[in-house]
Amino acid sequence: MKQILTIGRYFKSRYRQMVRKVPISLQGFTCPNIDGSVAKGGCTYCKNETFSPSLLSLEKSNINMNFNLTYNPILDKQVETLKSQFYNYSKSHNDKFGTNKYMLYFQSFSNTYAPYDTLETLYNEGLKLPNVVGLSIGTRTDCIEDRILELLGNYVKNKKEIWLEYGIQSIFDSTLRLINRGHGIAGAKELVQKTRKYGIKVCIHLIYGLPKENNEMMIASLKEVLSWGIDGIKIHPLYIVKDTAIEKMYNANKYEPISLENYADLIVQSLKLIPHNVVVQRISAGAHDDSLVAPKWCFDKNIQMRYIRDRLLENGIAY
Q1: So what's the pLDDT on residue 52?
Q2: What is the 3-state composition of the chain as percent helix, strand, coil, each rounded to the nearest 5?
Q3: How much is the CA Rg of the chain, to the nearest whole Å?
């Protein structure tokens, strides 16, 4: 039986106890394909509120983060939000599970797409919080500056665990154009390898079921990113939520979502390929409210994971 190195197993091996990732969503953060820097409207499937519900509780900001912002008037508010989200989440999980070690997960939008001083302040404040062992930062390959890598590398030197989570989604430029990604795959491999030279761990996000991609293309994306020497991976099924461009394609019969059976087959193939030392951080995703349009199997994570786990066990894989 092949046992997959899940994020839970990884943390227990390294820290000898459970470590919980605390999702952080801050006002003012955005992406260059949302604010018009490289594209408008964001990725065709994207609606951050569906996977970051805490965004709904944030006050709307008229200040958007980007590299060229010379003064950030909402920085104090961002620090306050960071601390509030951490303490609320950590207390809940300490009460429920007895958890007392945490990793901050800067989740929503591109969390390196902001002025250097803002990022330094937020990361520093986060690492000062009690029992925080490190940071996991979600971003894009076109939102990284060398001085950010240097900053994060210094945290690693000070014994903090730092991950950068790059949303690659697909290695095919035709797909990236179709989903309005705003950049291509060129330079991604070099950036991943450069990131790891600083001691920063890299987790790659891939999406299975993107428009016009077949099974061979999805597995090709996986094989390619594995060849870069990554430390972790997340694989998501593409699901459709209301008020997105992909919903319009679906309603016009121009896009058919991936089936649970096909997705599970791909996960079986994928986990057979993933080396034992690569941390598999996620193999499922969905929207658990009425924002979900399709596929309906992405509504209930328990049903989704039960089916996938059964298929994996049939193939000698323990997830």
Answers
A1: 58
A2: 40, 20, 40
A3: 19
C-alpha to C-alpha distances, 78 to 52, 90, 187, 204, 225, nearest whole angstrom: 16, 18, 32, 26, 33
CA angle 266, 210, 238 (to 5 degrees): 75
Omega of the bond leading into 23 within 30 degrees of 0 (cis): no
CA atoms within 13 A on the CB side of 86: 25
Relative to beta strand 279-282, strand 240-241 is: unpaired
Place of tokens 């290695």: 171
pLDDT at res. 61: 79
The owner of tokens 């509504």 is 299
Residue 163, pLDDT score:
98
Burial (0-12, 13-18, 19+ Cβ within 10 Å), 310 = exposed
Residue-wise pLDDT for 100-136, tens only, equals 999 999 999 999 999 999 999 999 999 999 999 999 9
Q: Return the exposure string of 194-218: e unless at least 16 CB atoms fall within 10 Å of the residue's CB, then b.
A: ebbebebbbbbbbbbbbbebeeebb
Cα–Cα distance between 285 and 262 in angstroms, integer?
A: 15
Residues of the chain with pLDDT below 50 are: none
How far is residue 145's CA from residue 71's CA, in Å, rounded to a whole number?
Answer: 18
Q: Are 116 and 147 in contact (CB under 8 A)?
A: yes
In CATH terms, 2-318 corresponds, of 1.10.10.10, 3.40.50.720, 3.40.47.10, 3.80.30.20, to 3.80.30.20
Instruction: Give the E-state strand segments of the chain in sequence order.
Output: 2-3, 20-24, 102-106, 132-139, 161-169, 201-208, 232-237, 240-241, 279-282, 292-294, 317-318
Q: What is the pLDDT of residue 47?
A: 78
